[in-house]
Amino acid sequence: MTQQTFTNTRIVLASRPSGAPTAENFRLENVSVPELADGQVLLKILFLSLDPYMRGRMSDAKSYAAPTEIGAVMEGGTVARIVQSRHPDFHEGDFVLSHSGWQSYAVSDGSGLRKLDPSAALLSTALGVLGMPGFTAYAGLLTIGQPKAGETVVVAAASGAVGSAVGQIAKIKGARAVGIAGGPEKCSFVRDELGFDAVVDHRDPDFTAKLKQACPNGIDVYFENVGGKVWDAVFPLLNTYARVPVCGLIAQYNATAGGSGPDRLPNFMREVLTRSLQIRGFIQREFVDQAPAFYREAAQWIAEGRLRYREDIVEGIEAAPQAFIGLLEGRNFGKLIVRIAED
Amino acid sequence: MTQQTFTNTRIVLASRPSGAPTAENFRLENVSVPELADGQVLLKILFLSLDPYMRGRMSDAKSYAAPTEIGAVMEGGTVARIVQSRHPDFHEGDFVLSHSGWQSYAVSDGSGLRKLDPSAALLSTALGVLGMPGFTAYAGLLTIGQPKAGETVVVAAASGAVGSAVGQIAKIKGARAVGIAGGPEKCSFVRDELGFDAVVDHRDPDFTAKLKQACPNGIDVYFENVGGKVWDAVFPLLNTYARVPVCGLIAQYNATAGGSGPDRLPNFMREVLTRSLQIRGFIQREFVDQAPAFYREAAQWIAEGRLRYREDIVEGIEAAPQAFIGLLEGRNFGKLIVRIAED
């Protein structure tokens, strides 16, 4: 076998952010790719997914996952092509979903790789509508939210990877979908292209009043992925027996301190009691047994035009840090993906 | 039919409390009982249940139930004997469960009455272990809490009507029951007579540390019926996927203002997310379809000695206000019941 040398360009965590991440928290490195051992494959990364949860990995606060070590490659879901294989189950040219992180090449022993069929769907969708974000929407909405026909489902970041799927799946189940998004362009996309029943701009100075107008029968399911001021506006509108799958709190991820007073927790608990509310945090992997149903249903909904999606693709691994910083500020428009290589 | 005159002694809401209720918030009245119309029965009240939820009815704050009007009879569950009947389904001498409130006689059209068999169980148990409190424990613990064998279930007010049933049903389901109670007498009752695996005294200056010791594997189900400082001690111990049925917040019922700062709600939501917690308020009537199973199972558990209970019976309707005030301070020991008449 002719020895070919590959250079891996990777982005590592240089330091932990205090508040919003900055370019200084990341460092780009070029290193040689080691030779494969038996049972290994070499992955050339084509697409890298950027997602809000990565902010959590940059901190060493207690969470559901261990933090990324200083100097380690930033974590992330990826679509890759196998360029060398010494593994019996994988061959050069295979496309796979992997969790290789922010880098251009990765060596894998095959564990955790899932083969992708490039003729079945755009490869990048394995990171979005047909991947972890789409599955997060599906499992959280259907298992915890359990929307019934005629109920009102509200979701923020409604043009994003998770929110756009939440609202459309709610519609498929016969519920009324109300989206929250930032700015007129995203709002019109949510209403006109995704087909939500109503959309409210959280930058509108009358946001709270307009959200109430958009939910004349109150809110039965609030899919929580932002927290902060949106949550404050939603909470009074929750109906008796409302369900709140808590999937993310992006508006709080950069917070460096607890909230200032008064302490709203006692009143919150009182409302949970008097309105029989259900508040339920979750991570999609809890519902992994539903993944086969998700892949089957979501693919069909896409084919039928009932589940649409938008990708926001930035070019080159060097662009990843700024794109991620923008994601936390809501600057992306659709599922944020970095194209690391063309093929 | 000879006309017999009855005098009804009743306790009405004289004024709404600010903070803890006082004797001045109640007024005792004596009024004549009106003659029965066709289709009505006259109930002589034997037992009145006193329960924490009544504090909510005394306030006009928004809640799941309308407040008691000023001047109206205080609400409450009762066991009564029918002393006159012009209703085809009820006869003089029948015992019934009713919701007649704080009074010695009541006229009913029969709706909502449930006949009781005095040979099957002590009549007073229809207000406690075989009544609303027992069913609250059963439905909240099993439907929301869903304890699994080997898991740790924590409940406060563990010698009380709801808490004592929660811990014992948890044990029946194979879980480890940890009770919280106030003072050595209640604690020894919970451990030695009810058979909880451990008990912690919330008056102990080292309460938080001792609760942690009593839950070496963390907490999987916390049946919330008190709120306040107990909740603060429990919350850090909740395991990933813990369930918290929120049934009551007695420690907060007399609060007149929101909590002082800092605002703990943002951090609370973050913990709900990172630990995949479920927080779920409920009122037992939501689960009314489970009532037949409850009556069947609870009666059997009592017969087998696996579901024990303690009643704290005070004598005479005049004693109800002070007994209720004491209930909110934890001064009762067991299910608090007022005996209004001997038979």
In short:
Two copies of one chain form a homodimer. Chain A has 343 residues and is α/β, with parallel strands linked by helices.
How would you describe this protein?
The structure is a homodimer of 343-residue chains. Chain A is of the alpha/beta class. Chain A has two domains: 7-128 and 310-339, Quinone Oxidoreductase, Chain A, domain 1 (Alpha-Beta Complex); 132-303, 3-Layer(aba) Sandwich (Rossmann fold). Helices cover 26% and strands 24% of the residues of chain A. Chain A contains nine helices and 15 strands. Chain A has helices at 54-58, 132-145, 161-172, 184-193, 207-214, 228-234, 265-274, 291-303, 320-328; strands at 7-13, 26-32, 41-49, 78-85, 95-98, 105-108, 114-116, 152-155, 176-181, 198-201, 219-223, 238-246, 278-281, 311-315, 335-339. In chain A, the strands form three sheets. In chain A, strands 3, 4, 5, 6, 7, 14 and 15 form a seven-stranded mixed beta sheet that branches. In chain A, strands 10-9-8-11-12-13 form a six-stranded parallel beta sheet, with helices on both faces. In chain A, helix 2 (132-145) crosses helix 3 (161-172) and helix 2 packs across helix 8 (291-303). The longest helix of chain A is centred in the middle third of the chain and has 14 residues, at 132-145. Chain A is globular, with a radius of gyration of 21 Å. In chain A, 48% of the residues are buried. The mean pLDDT of chain A is 94. The interface between A and B is large, with 43 and 43 residues. Strand 13 (278-281) of chain A pairs antiparallel with strand 13 (278-281) of chain B.
